[in-house]
């Protein structure tokens, strides 16, 4: 699914540079941006207009 930063949730996985990365922490930034932190410890700063490809598993899977 395609999503904007305000739609992502903890536990979502997004594709970054061909790698699937799990979001473990998020912080709101000015003007609708977010700082996404991944399980690897890496961080990605996105602005409000960034389109992300998100994988969200149903609960209980």
Automatic annotation (TrEMBL):
Kindly provide the name given to this protein in its UniProt entry: Uncharacterized protein
Please report the organism this UniProt entry assigns to the protein: Streptomyces armeniacus
């Amino acid at each position: 699914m395609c999503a904007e930063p305000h739609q992502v949730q903890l536990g979502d996985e997004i594709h970054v540079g061909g790698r699937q990365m799990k979001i473990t922490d998020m912080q709101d930034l000015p003007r609708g941006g977010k700082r996404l932190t991944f399980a690897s410890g890496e961080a990605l700063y996105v602005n409000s207009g960034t389109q992300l490809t998100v994988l969200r598993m149903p609960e209980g899977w």
